[in-house]
Amino acid sequence: MILEETHQHTKQQVGDSDLRYLSPIKIETKVEKKYCYFEQRNIKYIDYKDPIFLIKFLNAQGKILPRRITGTLQKNQNKLNAAIKRCRQIGLLPFVTDDLR
User: What are phi and psi of 53, to 5 degrees?
Assistant: First the structure.
């Protein structure tokens, strides 16, 4: 009878530890705060005649990077989009490419 009680007690401890690991382990990751490139450097006007600067906001295929990646504000993202499209229109930036960077 004493053996049965100790055996049941050890089963409860093992069962508790198994249940503890069924829930996902919380891993804290350091999230970098995104900031607006233009607000931080106090840039008021985005020059469409400067393709070297505008390439920073394009991916390797020549597509415009979204706000969620760059962290720019909506107001500045709209100005950036207009500047990139103007730059493409006058032929300083390609519309599509294989390797822009």
Answer: -70, -40
Query: pTM (2 decimals)?
Result: 0.67
CA pair distance 20, 10, nearest whole angstrom: 16
Three-state SS at 7: helix
The helix, strand and coil proportions of the chain, stated in percent and rounded to the nearest 5, come to: 50, 0, 50
Among all chains, which residue has been given the structure tokens 């499209």?
85
For residue 51, the cross-strand partners are none
Task: Tally Cβ neighbours within 10 Å of residue 22.
Answer: 6
Q: pLDDT tens-digit profile of 49-96?
A: 999 999 999 999 999 999 999 999 999 999 999 999 999 999 999 998
| Helical ranges in the chain per DSSP H | 2-20, 37-40, 51-54, 67-70, 74-89
What's the number of CA atoms in the CB half-sphere (13 Å) around residue 11? Answer: 6
